[in-house]
Amino acid sequence: MPRLFPLKPKGPPKPPKTAQAKQDSATLITLSCPFPSCGHSFTVAAAEAKKIKLCPNCIRPLKKPGRSSSRSGELAPVGSLIKPKLLKQIKGPTALQRRLIDTAADQQEPENPLYMHTVFCQTSLPYRDPGDDVREWRRTNGNLVLKVIAGEVVDPNTGEDVPLNLPFGAKARTILMHMNQRALVTGRAAVEMEDSLTRFVSRVLQLDPHGRNMRMVKEQLARLAASTMRLAILKDGRTLMVNSQIVTAFEIWFPKDDRQRVLWPTIIQFSSEYFESLQAHAVPLDEAHISALCHSAMALDIYAWLAQRLHRIPPGKPITISWIALHNQFGQGYNPDRIDKFRQVFRVALKEVLTVYRSARVEEGARQRARVYLSGGRPIVREPALVGLTLHNSPPPVRKLLK
To answer: Is 129 domain-assigned?
Structure first.
């Protein structure tokens, strides 16, 4: 079969060995194991002696030529003998990996599931802080549209407006889940946050509910309450649920110390439209799974999306989601011309999600074989686009619905 690729041209000829190099290759030296229990000795060329680090008999570090050891048989550091990748495996899983493994091992039905509206399972808030200059956020996924507008509050002491930025990150998502849970469990659109927030931060976010941690959580809570979130569903040329603001009223607490000012609402009033829609379209989520994934906003979005999507797929009729569609939904902030970078990050988050959501049947499409074409006598290699993800019918992470 003829070759399709031309042979690589030979490089420049290697320079001749110097007199010193010839002398080193001809000189023989004797290496000996410094451990009395072994005492193995062998002869090698001087040029090769520098490359030999272990005794071939006992596999322990050798005494280098020209170096003296203060203690015979001194042990070498483990890191100098083992590759970093293998050393990482020997040390065992990290704290994050242990949390994922422990959560995966405990597959009991949750007693107090969290809830997310189905629209937020298919669209998302910002992953990172957009900054002070960005006052609006818009995401579209198919026939769903989410628009978030940063809000303001009035200082009761000065009567001036205090601007609040857009909510973002994993904390904003978990706080919204907690707010939904409290509203559905109590059956009231008014949610008291002062007493339940501390327990939520300690139990779900696994953070010390004091100091900087609470300030960050309360700041995201205030941003959520003050922002205007408009949900829209496009269907048959019509638009449903437009201008449906989630929070219509909230009581906010102003600290007296301006140097440590953290504005946060103690009571939140959901709008009647959102509360009724939440009761009809709430997606239950396992609280333990959310706790294990609360370090990553992307992992939380993928988990909520799979929890809402997988059990709706007809049995025996899997669906395929392209990488372009996945980038449009989850790739905020990633260059669309470099989907490979997004794909690398997405795979890590998906692996963490599937570690805890063990019943989810998600497969990545296999890479197809590359084809070689001849153009002007020169071979051109073309690789077909990656398929994406294949989703199969799977049970939801929480089967018990709220009564």
So the answer is: yes
